[in-house]
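Good morning,

Both structures are done.
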Amino acid sequence: MANPVLGERTFNPSLDLENNVPMTINGTILKTCFLGLLTAVTFIYNWGLILSGFSDKATMLSQVGIFGGLGLVLFICFAPKNKFLMITTSLYALCEGLVLGYISAIANKFYPGVASQAAMGTILALFGMFFLYKTGIVKPTEKFRMVIFNSTLAIFLIYVAQMILGFFHITIPGIFSNSPIGIAFSVIVVAIASFNLILDFDLIASFAGRAEKHYEWYCGFSLLVTIIWMYIEILRLLMKLQSRNS
């Protein structure tokens, strides 16, 4: 397991499904697409506010999205998994759209076209990882899982360390700049984020039919978390590359 919101302990394989409709892969895909659509709606809305000159309102909404999204992540992960997941995961998607729309519009202002390139890169990575998983070219073996898990944890700790150091106006040298080291770091992070999708696909497939129907919302939410992370990292990488050419 690498995605922190999607793990075996999240599910209870011994659930009595005799009187319940089980979770399916197709249902999970549909709900993931629905959550993605909600994210796109608020993404476009907050982007439009900036283009229309309402930057203050867009900033306020992005802050609502940050704190609301964080609170919803904690609630979704630790609260009981029930029919209310449809509401909480949808609200999370709307919050994340506000944040992504804001940062994408700002990034696009300084680096024209970078947001659309990041979106295209995310879509290509998503389908590319799904192809690698379905064809068996990349197999989620235990060794593969351990490597991705440890790599994801290391990246998380680096970001936490930078956040703490930021309060003292200190930056970790190199990796957050547009230097070759910084670009290499971003490439590695994008790769790790992408390979997390394979583990997500495999775990969802392994629990299809073993969990209740509302877990499709939770799985859709977990995939959205990975996809959003991947988009942000691709956006960061492209900004670094464009800044070197400007």
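Second structure follows.
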Amino acid sequence: MKKVWLITGCSTGFGRELATYVLSQGNSVAVTARNVDDVKDIIKGYGDKAIALKLDVTKPGDIRDAVRETKFAFGRIDVLVNNAGIGYFGAVEESEDDAVRNMFEINFFGLTKMIQETLPIMRAQKSGHIVNIASIGGLVGFPAVGFYNATKFAVDGLSESLSKETAPLGIKVTIVAPSGFRTDWAGRSANNSPVVIDDYATTAGKNKNDIRGYSGNQPGDPARAAKAIVKAVESENPPLRLLLGAAALKGARAKLDMLAKDFDEWEATTVGADGPKS
């Protein structure tokens, strides 16, 4: 059965590729962006199967309008994809409060408001699927992107809790965790902190330069990622976490090994912290 999709952040990257592919498969899509002119080309030729909507996820009014207009146009919302997001480069000590808070407003609080506005529709339908675009950086921390990691760790934790709340209601949740893909994330979508502390040159500084240096040449293909996301949504038992890219898989497995090492080596201390039973 064809579905109704609402996708945030469709002007570039994953959002654009996903909207284009989902429409090509005969689904109905609300294609959104802060500047609606940036996405009008995506909906050409699809008639009443597609609408382009202005949506800045930091503006509650935009969110309410987008959800309402999607429901009005198509009668339901089957899949919400929270894709809108930005990056930010700087060691934790270098990072500026205003830039960090703005990133949280987009990457986390905007996402949560989208979920809260859409859930009443999905609850009434007794069905739906919420897809939150996180990052391998929501499972593994890296130097130079500590606060970006924090936004995505927050998305991951919220999504896991949400999945347990909504499963009995027929609503599924999938966290998408990509590694390096040829999107604009490491380009104009991520600012640098103007503060540079030399002591972090070999850690945060190096990683920032490495990521900037291969922007546009990452191994990940956004078009293939779009197909992978659709495959997960259409599967009978979709994953809670969908890793995308070989580097994501490698990083996640390394994190599992690191956790197991700490847990095993400190097991006696951990268990010993419990007090004697009365």
